[in-house]
Amino acid sequence: MIQPKSRYYFTKLPAGEQEIYKQIQSGWENLRKAITVNIPTEKNIPDISRIIEYILWDSPGLFFVDRNKFRIYYLGRKMTIEASFYYEKKQIAEYETRLRQEIRKIMARYSVMGLNEYDKVLALHDCLAKNVKYENGLHSETSYSVLGGLLKRKTVCEGFAKTYKLLCDEANIDCIVVSGTATPEGNKSERHAWNIVKLGVNYYHVDVTWDSCAYAKTEKVSHSHLNMTDSDAAQDHQWDKNLLPHCNHNALNYYIVNKTHFATEEAFKLYFINGLKNGQKSFEVRFENKPKDQNDMSNIIQRILLSRQVSLFSGYSYSFSYNANRGTVSIQFS
Questions:
Q1: Series of mean pLDDT values for 10-residue runs along the chain (334 residues)
Q2: What residues pair up with 285 in beta bridges, in sequence order?
Q3: Residue 198 · residue 205 · CB < 8 Å
Q4: 327 by DSSP, 3-state: which?
Q5: Inter-residue contact 291 to 322 (CB < 8 Å)
């Protein structure tokens, strides 16, 4: 099995359940479907559902375990957990070989191991956001696993999150799969998965799924959801704040690092005008004081384009995508 570097959820279990976690994981790594463990005490029956959930979040390499089919048998102080596997032993080995090959290709293509922590997180984010599509319609078992993300190149949010963790593990970046809910603009709250990464001593939210879907009709990659703080993410994401680490620093937010976070419209105007004069055709920025909607953002761009300083560009056509919750905008000129 492809081993995870970090097991955050393992650390959140009490000692007795940690031992059960290790026995189940070891059994699955050796492709054993039935695993018998000791129950620590008769009064404290372990929460097996939670332990299994934590194992599968910590270990994306267990793609072959059917997360929906388990049987549990009790006999005295012993408990047997019987799992179902999606694939037979030979097929599991073949998939693992293909996954390792794909991981090596990605690490080499983006020279990941030679990068600093921030650039590793950015490169792997861009790799998935650019090359993996969100899977609409009917879903299969691969839709929720790294097989969808790395081999099929089509997956749902859980597959994105697990694939991102698998790659971060390989790159020696501490990464957590977050299971919660989210509220897409104009829609109802729905189940959602994303990641939290550790850079230095601080933690940041990363939602590759939403960045991959931001510009579905173009090759442009969004960074609106790269290295968010809790307050950023909480605009439209909900999660267990008592279980997961706090993300309270923004020093490595994408826009802060790239100096495209603007406190005032005037500061943005100077950056925008200089960029246009130097032939820049694409802009991705964040506003501290967020324009309230698309019309407000459009008015800001129009005011600048109609100013005397950029009159030469008044005939250019442009398009933009604005995220009101993030205060981020991507503008493309042609």
A1: 93 94 96 92 81 97 94 90 97 98 97 98 97 89 96 96 98 98 86 98 97 72 96 96 97 98 95 90 95 94 78 72 93 87
A2: 329
A3: no
A4: coil
A5: yes
